[in-house]
Design goal:
This protein has 282 residues and is mostly helical. The chain folds into 2 domains: 98 residues, no CATH class; 154 residues, no CATH class. 66% of the residues lie in helices and 3% in strands. It starts with a helix and ends with a helix. It has a two-stranded antiparallel ribbon with strand order 1-2. It contains 9 helices and 2 strands.
């Protein structure tokens, strides 16, 4: 299959998944079922028909309004569908050029990225990260490892035993879950005892575990560094412009999502650049 056709199909499926993500973004924070009732206008409650749900086009053709009550529809719906479609196309090209198991790795990149997109918008608006999305990411990473071990397309991660020459083999996903989730848990405990308030939420800890399950350990840790740097930059900017004070919180989930996306595609490259910069490239 020509690469352009594969990308086009991936983009098409991405917009469809993006339409479902809009359902998740609206319903998960409200503890509503994802399957019942069917898609409906949140303002008038009218059940939407198939031609009301065509990704991207229905929104534009209806003038950004509900066909039935003429109530305005936020541009977030269009943005999520477009963003997910573009991301699926990029994920397909990345898997095609960097993987020895293209279909499986594409599915991992695509599905984990979809969960990250939903987390980004939910945490940005509601300041929560639904457990369902983080658990989905964790299961996805473990599932990819199981397939990799069975098909011999992925090796185990060896953890050295201190003061011995022995090492314990552990799937990369489990090593990432323990290392990344454990790091965030330790930071949360220490910050609570030092500052007497919650520094990192439970949702951030579970998201860190999901990132560790799907990214190699180096890129996963790099993603957290990027998230902290980005969060600091945005936080300082908000304080300078008077939008936030030093006592105000800023949702960290969107920063973690941004860091995960950068590390997913460029993590290994950035790490190699850093090693060359400090003279550790051998």
């Amino acid at each position: 299959m020509p690469e352009w056709l594969g990308v086009a199909i991936a983009v098409l499926y991405g917009t469809i998944v993006g339409s479902f993500l809009n359902v998740c973004i609206w319903r998960l924070p409200r503890d509503e079922s994802l399957t019942h009732p069917g898609s409906h206008c949140p303002q008038c409650g009218k059940l939407l028909r198939a031609w009301d749900l065509v990704p991207l086009f229905s929104f534009l053709l209806q003038g950004c309004k509900c066909r039935y009550c003429k109530g305005p529809i936020t541009w977030r719906y269009f943005s999520v569908e477009l963003l997910t479609g573009v991301y699926f196309g990029l994920a397909y090209m990345f898997a095609l050029n960097n993987s020895n198991a293209v279909v499986v790795d594409f599915l991992q990149y695509a599905l984990f990225g979809a969960a990250l997109i939903a987390i980004f918008f939910i945490d940005l608006e509601h300041w929560i990260i639904p457990d369902q999305l983080s658990v989905f990411g964790i299961v996805l990473g473990i599932g990819r490892d199981v397939y990799g071990l069975v098909s011999h397309t992925r090796e185990t991660f060896h953890i050295p035993v201190p003061w011995t020459s022995l090492s314990v083999p552990l799937p990369q996903s489990l090593a990432g879950i323990f290392a990344c989730g454990g790091t965030f848990l330790a930071i949360a405990v220490v910050s609570y005892y030092i500052f007497k308030k919650e520094g990192i939420g439970g949702g951030d800890i579970k998201l860190a575990a999901a990132v560790g399950a799907n990214l190699a350990l180096g890129p996963a840790m790099l993603s957290f560094f990027i998230a902290v740097a980005l969060g600091s930059f945005i936080g300082i900017g908000l304080m300078i412009f008077g939008r936030k004070s030093r006592k105000d919180y800023v949702p960290f989930g969107p920063m973690m999502v941004a860091g995960a996306f950068v590390s997913m595609f460029y993590g290994q490259t950035l790490i190699k650049m850093y090693y060359r910069l400090v003279g550790l490239d051998g």
